[in-house]
Amino acid sequence: MTISDDRRTAVTLTHAQPGEVIGLRTPEWYRGATRWTQLTFTDDDPATLDVDFWIDVMRRSASNALCLSAGGYMAFYPTQIPWHHRSAFLGDTDPFGALVEGARSLGMHVMARVDPHAIHQDAADAHPEWLARDEDGQPIPHGSVPGLWWTDPFSSYHTEFTTEVAREIVREYDVDAVFANRWDGPRSVSHTEATAQRFTADTGFALPRVANLNDPAWPAYAAWHSRRLSELVVLWDDAVREIKPHVRFIPNRGAALTRDLVHELVDDRYPMFFVDKQGRSDLEPAWTPGRIGKRARGLYPDRPVALITSVGPEHHELRWKDSVADPEETKALVVDGFAQGALPWFTKFKAENFDDRWVQPIVDAYRLHERCEPVIGRLRYTAEVAILDSRGTAGRTPWTPPPGREAHEDGVYQALLEARIPFEYVADEALSADRLAGIRVLVLPATPELTPQQVGVIEEFVAAGGAVVAAHDSSVRGPAGSRELALGEIFGVRLRQDVRGPLKNKYMAITADHPLVAGYEGAQRIVAGSLVLGVEQIPTAEGVTVPFRFVPDYPDLPMEEVYPREAPHEPAVIAREHASGGRTVYVAFNVGEIYWEALQSDHGRLIANAVRWALADSPRVQVAGRGLVDLAVQEGERELAVSVVNLTNPMAMRGQAHELIPLTGQSVRMRLPEGVQEARARLVVAGEDVPVSVSEGHAEVALPAIDHLEVVHLTW
Hints:
By secondary structure, the chain is of the alpha/beta class.
């Protein structure tokens, strides 16, 4: 294979550019890749590519990393590999090489994008063994473009052809990584002869079919599918590192990160993650980007994660790839993401622009990140409250999602956000005493089937003075007919009846004077849930209070029959103070889910009250004021930073944000370490020092009007 000497010389010269960014071309280059530009070429782009425009965008936005289409499905460089389909408009140009050199001239990191999911007809004719096949053995056509075919991820197309494409790119270009998109094949079993033989040899089963989801081959296939994909990650990464040791091959992952791969194989193969969540859709709230950062940190607290945000709108089946989102929406997605640790990454499909309105919002958001990065980029995230991130039981196939339980967590997330209680995540597979260090309250929105090890960690946490707020079927386990509440002993109750419902017209009465009933003045009872569990108090449990009890069921129609027949008696919310100083709250219904679905303020108040009471004393950080904000707290040696993200807009709970309403009258109050009498504060976004009021061990800072973000940096 030969590539022009002119280009080879130009690439070599970029290694000696003056003013190189620290970390370029080193094994930890990715730690300096904190603002990403991604350009996905289309077939006709080589004929019209404006290199100067894209260099200017990267310069203006202070981007320090570029992800650029290179090859796989279509090559945008003069590849020499047979059946590597070149862009029809490539001619004697090299758009990939031109932008790689341009990015390197700015001192940027560079990642080459490949897409191995489909091939053209000529390659399919020459290599039918590359094609994914349905249960009848027929090739699977691409659903969008006639004449294209899906590839089998377990065929030689991935193991050999894609490997050689990656090696060619790394040999001939100055890149730091290769990024694979849509690399794990169609969301179905590929029934090629070779794949079938390999699966049977490895497992003893024949490939399963969708007509029989109870086939015992399905669990075996799920495990085999996970291992084979994990082995592919290792194969590709080894191949590129053999050529240049600092280069990595990083296949794309979703929000699950590596949870669906084999940890012992891939954990050291993902130095950072890229979460492809390009925009809000349906009923997703404005805080969605921030949750991605938190959730990634809950599993891998020390690994960078970047959030891929499209410059255009995204709405599941509705796709407008050449469109542009509202400027306020674009900025909001980027800002809330990076405030919670999800590094900014914008993606533009097609180099040609039909609408330039995306450029300035990206520049504004990226420059805001550049301004904040010296503080938030080096401090560690911290919180006194954590949500247990549980995936639940796996579906029957690798593509079947776990039973839908997202609403339970969504409601808890919304309630804590509204209550301005800073919180983090802890992934259930990472749950340990070490990971709970510094956490005062662990929240279980609806986490059944906890393992004995997880139950033990939580029990020890409470015995050491920690607090737990749990709801619905959290820790319920066992076969039908003999279910138990595994954490019942620490809650002070035992399970009498498993989940019942959905119910209508279900209420609970206020039955004790307790901090959990704060804010319900004037009410004798409030709405309960649609799914309830029957529990009874353990007589020997000490320190138990029952602030709410269920009103026994009664009809919702006809209207003349809508009245209670019996007095409240079964516990609905149980609070307990432990001798260790720890506190527990158990809510025996789907409070998170029902809050998310109905958004009744009484449910949000109950969640917030439970967490505040469980904290036992005032939170370390409090932000007062009106409006919807997302908070992040970070700390270092003798310093603390509080990011206040303004989410106050009329579309906070649905669709694109059209208008951001500036926040006024906000203040931040922080508990200082014992003995500290003075503190200094700087507003990072405003770029000014501000007065600090210190009294009774707390520092308080008043904030001026906030547009998208302000970061209060306190030092002492």
